[in-house]
Design a protein that fits this description.
Length: about 450
């Protein structure tokens, strides 16, 4: 056993120590070699040391270096060393985190982390917290609680009787909501299309001039951090409107909710603490390993009514805070371990410094791009920069060459009907040197492509 673990530890640490120096993009050779993993199910097993050696041989080289300080794709973070170490320990502990009685230690870590998170983000202290896989499931979980409360108020028991014959329920959502929110609505039986979409302004915020009338039985889904611009919906204003009508306000803050940990940035989400539920990702800006999302719900009863199970073999009396009362899963890994480790390591000032540093780097990136006379499409209020180099063809070619170069990695988006490059800064390692190095490559490639295309 010791040799096996030592070997895995060695591979993992070698990977972590070299990853920042290696090309971020996966090479074509490494992709091709993945075929060596695709064997028929063996009748006879392989020695465990050999299994780990084989996996390391083919998987490590084909791993996109997403934890690099120069990875700016999608909106994803890296993993702080303390969270990787805690995660390894958590794997060794192998705790099935459903029940407090059987896994008191990890249930305690989750209880404490939940309290810290509410404190850090300035959310109501009585809120219940669910540790889930990511923001998709955090949105799903919070919206299940919303569905419970809205139907309960309308005199309908949706958990018992389902949706057939239920009173009408209305969803108000931004036209720029993340696609996974629609997926959550579909999974809840509320429908992707049975929504009222609110048009947005030039930064992707809901336009309050065009906000619809709020009817009885309404859930309003807002966004803290537009996936392109990073802008926030006017959530405080929406909450004030909504609460005169008894509507539930949910906040999808997959990355943007973290701004509430910064005194410099929290004005973006002014009043969002008045909402009813919030979703965020720890595997984004808190920089813990996958997977780790969090749902917070002000009305604990609504969340438990939607999520708790009862079964004859499960303890109910003096059961403490059963983590599974708050989540879609019964059995799951103890996600609170990694969250606890990073929060204890950084403290609230360290989280604030992380969020501020990323946002400062995004602003610096935008300044460099504007200085080189490229068009930055958004007001850089958070960690997102959307840059457009010209025609669709030009943008595609520049992004392709930047990705192939391997120094940094940027994603593509379509925003306000234009194809563009999206740069997202949410890695704990990113600093101005990483931005300088990345900008220098993007600038060189973009200038060369533009000059070649204008000559043709
Ligand atoms: C605003 C928003 N909501 C939801 C999600 C889905 O999060 P996850 O991929 O963690 O499920 C994302 C992911 O980027 C997001 O940015």
């Amino acid at each position: 056993m010791t040799e096996l673990y030592k070997q895995a530890f060695q591979y993992a640490t070698e990977f972590l120590q070299s990853a920042n120096e290696l090309p971020i993009q996966v090479s074509e050779d490494a992709r091709r070699n993945l075929k060596y993993l695709d064997v028929d199910l063996p009748k006879h097993g392989m020695d465990s040391v050999k299994v780990i050696e084989t996996m390391n041989q083919w998987v490590t080289p084909a791993t996109m270096k997403m934890g690099s300080p120069r990875f700016f794709g999608f909106v994803i973070g890296g993993a702080y060393p303390v969270s990787v170490a805690a995660n390894w320990l958590g794997t060794a502990w192998d705790q099935n985190t459903g029940l407090e009685k059987t896994t008191p230690a990890v249930a305690m870590l989750e209880k404490v982390s939940a309290r810290w998170m509410l404190d850090l983000l300035g959310l109501p202290q009585q809120s219940a917290t669910a540790f889930v896989t990511g923001a998709t499931v955090a949105n799903f979980t919070a919206l299940a609680a919303a569905r419970n409360q809205v139907f309960t108020t309308a005199g309908w028991d949706v958990e018992a009787d389902g949706l057939i014959g239920a009173p009408e329920l209305h969803i108000i959502i931004s036209e720029e909501s993340h696609p996974t929110v629609y997926k959550s609505l579909a999974m809840l039986g509320l429908g992707r299309n049975r929504v009222i979409k609110v048009p947005t302004d030039d930064q992707g915020r809901m336009d309050m001039e065009q906000f619809p009338e709020i009817k009885d039985n309404t859930i309003i889904i807002t966004q803290a951090g537009n996936i392109n611009s990073g802008a926030f919906d006017p959530i405080g204003q929406i909450c004030q409107l909504a609460h005169t009508k008894n509507a539930w306000v949910h906040v999808d803050g997959a990355f943007g909710l973290w701004a509430m940990a910064s005194r410099k940035l929290k004005h973006l989400g002014a009043g969002l603490e008045l909402a009813d539920s919030w979703a965020t990702d720890a595997h984004k800006w808190l920089n813990v390993p996958y997977d780790s999302g969090l749902a917070f719900v002000k009305n604990e009863h609504a969340l438990k009514a939607a999520m708790a199970i009862t079964a004859s073999y499960l303890p109910t009396e003096n059961a403490g805070r059963n983590p599974s009362d708050y989540t879609p899963e019964l059995s799951r890994r103890a996600r609170g371990i990694d969250v606890y480790a990073v929060l204890r390591h950084l403290g609230s000032s360290g989280v604030e410094a992380l969020i501020n540093r990323c946002c400062d780097c995004a602003k610096y990136f935008a300044d460099l791009l504007r200085g080189a006379e490229f068009e930055v499409m958004n007001e850089v209020v958070l960690n997102q920069v959307v840059v457009c180099f010209g025609s669709e063809k030009l943008n595609l070619e520049i992004m392709d060459q930047v990705q192939k170069d391997g120094t940094c990695w940027v994603g593509q988006t379509i925003w306000k009907d234009r194809l563009a490059m999206r740069i997202s800064v949410c890695n704990w390692q990113t600093d101005s040197a990483a931005v300088d190095e990345s900008f220098s490559i993007i600038n060189k490639i973009a200038k060369a492509v533009i000059s070649r295309c204008t000559k043709v």
